[in-house]
Structures are given as structure tokens and as C-alpha cells.
Amino acid sequence: MDDPAHRPSFVRVGTSLAGQAHRAVAEAIATIDPEDARFVLAFIPKSLDLGDMLNALNAHLEGTPVFGCTTAGQITGNGYESEALLLLAFPKANFRCASTLFKPLNPIHITGISAQAKRLSDRFVHTAGWNRMGLVFTDGLSKQEDLLISALNLALDDLPVFGGSAGDGLEFVETFVLHDKQFHSDAALLLLLETNLGFQGLGFDHFLPAETQMVVTQADPGERLVYEINGAPAAQEYARLVGCDEHDLSPLVFAENPMLVEHYGNHYVRAISGAVGDHALCFLAAIDDGLVMSLGKGREIIKTLDESLAVCDQTGAAPDFILGFDCVLRKLEIQQKQMSGAVSSIFRNRRVFGFNTYGEQHRGMHMNQTFVGVAFFAQDMGAFS
């Protein structure tokens, strides 16, 4: 339900639940003026045909840059959705942008990516008084996000970069990013933004480390596979530690019992996507032999979400809108606990728009089961991440 009270002033929002791409784009574009848009972000459900989507976007938004990705779910003006096309149009009066595509990602070439990102930044002339950030959208099955975001963090001189990994529900089959009127796999999109709005970066989860610790004793870092934990078969040992039978391991068990790693005094989630092969565990972020991890102990997810989104500018004003990248495993846990309505209400009240990801990028790190976002304020309060 489109509530004018929750409609932002500095981004135009279009959505559609239509199951056919041309109709979905036509419905979503009805609330957007392409002539006013500097660029459009498109977050696309797995149910829509990508070839038809390209044709429809090109027909309705010819001359307007469109960036985005396939998603594991969307956050619209109604909150959580699973099959919605979401278009976000950023107005020319408040935004400028420059983009580049990194392809292929695997094998990753750190030096080349760093040089390409620096060239983009150097050629993107800085507008006096405007604030600058980066957005990154990555093939969520590339397994290269950790190295990519680290390279970007160094190349861009600590410019705040926020992002999410493309998804396709919980199938983990094929994901794409959208750039230059084409969908790309094994690729990542970097979008540099300038805005005369103030912004603040967000990044939080709802887990604390429990006392139970473990050590990865055999792994394949390139494939993010762990074969042994504490010297025992990984899936068996993990199941023992969480108190269930190995045969009962499921996406929900993994979502409710994530692994945490410590980095400079903070703990970050290393989520498990599934049990594979002969008792191995597949992770959604970097792992390696000798890595020490703790089991995560969940806090109140609704309270944590509402409190963490309650940011304000120096005058005490709430954001005009929040661009959000929310892990699909958070959504799964919320759905299983029948909290979707409460979470969607919070997103509506906080004017959150975005998508569900296979991983999130913030502060030079790739993480899981985290909400990462950018809060934009009408008051130009500067920028901080």
C-alpha cells in the first residue's frame, strides 16, 4: 500500500508484482519520470525473464543509465517482498554517478581491479561541496567478494563503499549484475556516487559470540569449503555443537546458528549456505585453515533492527530514505519466526528500500547475515560511514 507519509522526497520508487517483464517495468515506471532521473537502480526477482527485462528497461528507460542485479528478495514500500520488481530513480538535482564493470572475477586480478577503480575515481570530477561514496553489486556466487571489497577499499583511499551480493532466492544457482544494458555473471559493478544530501552508513547484525569456539582444521579457501572442524568431519562437528543430528541440518539451522569471526575486536558472521559432499560445509564468505570461530548467539532481531535503523542527522531529523542490503538468511529466520509483518512495518516506517543479498560489503569487509545500508538525509550534514 502506497502511503504518502512514507514516500521519500529524494528518490522515486516504482514497484510491480506482475509476472511478465514488460508489464512489470511498465507498472513500476509509472511513478518515475525518466527525464528527471540521473540513474535508476533495478532490483529484479528471479521469476522475471532477463532477456525480456532488458528489452523492457531499454524501451522505457532509453537514455537513462540503469544498474542493479538479480535478488533473493526485495524491500519495497510494503516491506519484504519475494517477487517484486523494484526500481529506484535518483534525481539529477541531487546525484551524479560514474560506473565500471569488473569481469571476470574468477580468477580475480587484484592489481587490475585496483587500477581500474582508481582510474574511475580520478576521472570522476568532484563537485565542490558534494559528498562521495561507492556502491558495489557483485555476482553472489563468484566467491570473490572478500578480495574485491578489500581491493576497492585500498584503491579508493578509504572512500566509504557499501554493497550487496546478487541472489536468486535460496537456490544458489545463478546470479547476475546489470550494467551497460546487459546482465553479467562472474562480474561486479562499481558505482561511484556524488550527492548534495548528507548520508550515514549502517551495518549491524543480531548475534553475539557464545562461549563455544572451534577451529577450522581442513578447508578449501578458494571454494569456501570446510572439511574438518576441531579435527572432525565439519558437518558432524557443527551439528554436535548446535545440538542436532547431521541429517537435520537445514538453511534455518544455519541461519539461527551462524559462525562468527573476530576482526579488530568486532565479530562478523561467516554464514553457512549448506552441507555438501562428504560431511563438508559450504560458506558464503572467506574461510581458511586455522581460522578460529565462535557460534553465534542470537539477540532480539526486531528490537535490534528498529534500534539500529533509528539514526538521525545533527538536527535530530530522520533519514529521507535508507538504501538497504539485507542478507537473505536474515529474511529466512524472520519468516520462520513469523515476524515478517513486524519487520516490514519497521522498514515502511523507516523508508527502507533495497534487496535481500547473498552477502554484504561495508568498511572494507564482506560479511553475512548483516544489514548494510546508507541513510540519506535532506540536511547536508556531510558524510560518514
Shape, principal axes of CA atoms: globular
Low-confidence segments, ≥5 residues, pLDDT <50? none
Task: Kindly provide the radius of gyration, computed on alpha-carbon positions and rounded to a whole number of angstroms.
Answer: 20 Å
Distance linking N and C termini: 32 Å
Give the oligomeric state of the chains in this entry, treating copies of one chain as homo and distinct chains as hetero. single chain
Domain module count: 2
Number of helices: 9
Largest sheet: 8 strands, antiparallel
Note the beta-strand portion.
35-45%
Structural class: alpha+beta
Please report the total strand number as a whole number. Answer: 27
Description of the molecule:
- Helix content is 23%, strand content 38%.
- By secondary structure, the protein is α+β, with helices and mostly antiparallel strands.
- The protein folds into two domains: 4-204 and 301-384, no CATH class; 207-298, no CATH class.
- Helix 1 runs parallel beside helix 2 (50-60) and helix 3 packs across helix 4.
- It is globular and about 60 Å long.
